[in-house]
Write the structure tokens for this entry.
Amino acid sequence: MEELTIRQAQHRVDEWIKKYGIRYFNELTNLAILTEEVGELARIISRTFGEQSFKSIEDNRDISDELADILWVVICLANQTGIDLTEAFRKNEYKKTQRDAERHINNRKLIEKMEKTDFMLNKFRETFSHFQAMPSDAEITNIVKTMIDGNMKNNFTTDVLKIIHNCIDLTTLTTLDTKESVCGMVENVVNNYEGTCPDVINVAAICVYPVFVGAVKQVLTAKDVKVAAVAGGFPSSQTFIEIKVAETALARKAGADEIDVVVNLGCFMEEDYETLSDELSEIKDSCQGAKLKVILETGALTSAENIRKAAILAVYSGADFIKTSTGKGYPGATPEAVFVMCNVIREYARLSGRMVGIKVSGGVNTAEDAVQYYTIVKEVLGDKWLNKNFFRIGASRLTEDIRRRLVE
């Protein structure tokens, strides 16, 4: 496609108007049209990049097309008023250069913000550099496959299934949850199972929405089973930090022993690591002693390097566990993601002396699924992590499958 100068564009619009448009609309009408087109651009940009979605009746128009509409009307106005836009642009650029040659360079607000941003980025990049670099995504896939293929058979034993059973966070997180359904699950799956198989320890925790924490605490009679609540704007984390902190504190007040929150992926994608870390630290403080599990949403992060960085930020911000997924909207856990997270946990333990747990969630439905993740944790982190204090699996159907296998 040929290049088009501003002057050529003015000539082409003028020819089009004479051939197809009969005549120009008057200046006032074109001004109204320009205002309308700018408003339309604002609508599309706000729907595309802001928090609103497009209405079902709206035409999801292309931003480039809308910008072209605006340019067309501007050219019409220039032609009508006898303005050479090429010359006008040159004069305007010269004016701005003379006026602003040192204005922005000497603007301390811009400089300080830029310097602070650069400093924080460098600080976090230095932190990332302390951790071992990951192989390529393809290499990780091969490593994990070899690891699972070589150890899965030996690990698929009754004793391992018993360990995994005690590491399950029995979960219900649906929009149809009610007090009756949640309490029924606690009664039927947890309370009634207590003591029926003396050598099989009950699940580690029951994970619910914060509004159901009080009800679970009232009906739970099984010993040593914790109550976990999702909080902090789950599952998107796209809300005010004040809301995240308040919801966490309310869940804790209701009796939650553990809190599961999602890392702020918006901040992560913008490399605003400071805000991300500060948010998690504030949420950690509001946990008031409850364990904090930080969900990375690995299905949204997609690459091993992104998962690695998010995991590092989470552990340095106070996470007691790092968790793969919400199970809402994005792909769930994968062996590759768990491998990367386990490597970060291992390096962090070496650097800090603190053990952080790992929680696998999203699509773990069968004993085979669970054992493959057990295998990765065992091979990368070792036996010290193979208990409910440092290894969890969030699932709604896994418990039933493991119990069935244990009685076969």
Summary: The domain at 6-100 is CATH 1.10.287.1080 (Helix Hairpins).
